[in-house]
Design goal:
Blueprint: H1 2-5, H2 13-46, E1 49-57, E2 63-72, E3 75-82, E4 86-89, E5 96-100, E6 105-109, H3 112-125, E7 131-137, E8 141-143, E9 151-152, H4 154-161, H5 170-192
Parallel strand pairs: 3-7, 4-8, 7-9
Antiparallel strand pairs: 1-2, 2-3, 4-5, 5-6
């Protein structure tokens, strides 16, 4: 067994390999955290307040889950995140969308109908406030045949809903705040049922 552990090379090679391995691990951790930080930064640029994993009454009978609901200077924004890698084939009228990457090919249901349901549910609660929704595909996705409606990248989301002057938008936020509280109350009521 000791024969396998012997190394006849220069003594500096093993420490160098250990340092390179450590750097590789640190870069991998930074890459993974970087994606989450970019998402968090985008949320901070867009929203004045945010609720995650909200359950509210749906427009028809029952309840519906909203992954991200944000109070923005333009109204309320529902965000669905899709973290896929590869070429995405989808359109407004397709029932299933396909992702083709080097490793595999798979399909998933068109996310637009559920987003429309979420928008309708939020609008039912806050009738006088603009409600928008976006499906955000993170950096690994590429649409080569055109981008369907309500689909964007994180950068496009910030460009569309970001508020460069948060102080100037305060009066809009104050006007939206009673409606935001209605959403929070509706979510609390859904939990009690």
């Amino acid at each position: 067994m000791a024969d396998y552990l012997q190394f006849d090379g220069p003594p500096w090679v093993i420490p160098l390999l250990a340092v390179l391995l450590l750097l590789l691990v640190l870069l991998l951790i930074r890459y993974i955290r970087g994606g989450r930080n970019a998402l968090r930064r985008a949320y901070n640029e867009i929203s004045f307040e945010r609720i995650e994993s909200l359950i509210i009454p749906s427009a028809d009978e029952g309840e519906i889950q909203v992954d991200q609901l944000m109070l923005t200077s333009q109204g309320l924004l529902i965000v669905d995140i899709k973290d896929v890698s590869g070429t995405v084939f989808g359109s407004d009228k397709m029932q299933d969308w396909a992702v083709i990457s080097e490793q595999r090919r798979y399909t998933f249901p068109n996310p637009q109908p559920m987003l429309y349901d979420r928008i309708a549910a939020v609008r039912q609660i806050v009738r006088e406030v603009p409600v928008a929704g976006r499906i955000v595909f993170l950096d690994g996705a590429e649409f080569t045949k055109g981008v369907p409606g309500l689909v964007c990248t994180l950068e496009e989301l910030v460009d569309e809903f970001g508020e460069p002057d948060k102080k100037a938008a305060k009066f809009k936020i104050e006007a939206f705040m009673p409606h935001w509280e209605l959403i929070q109350k509706a979510a609390e009521t859904s939990k009690v049922r």
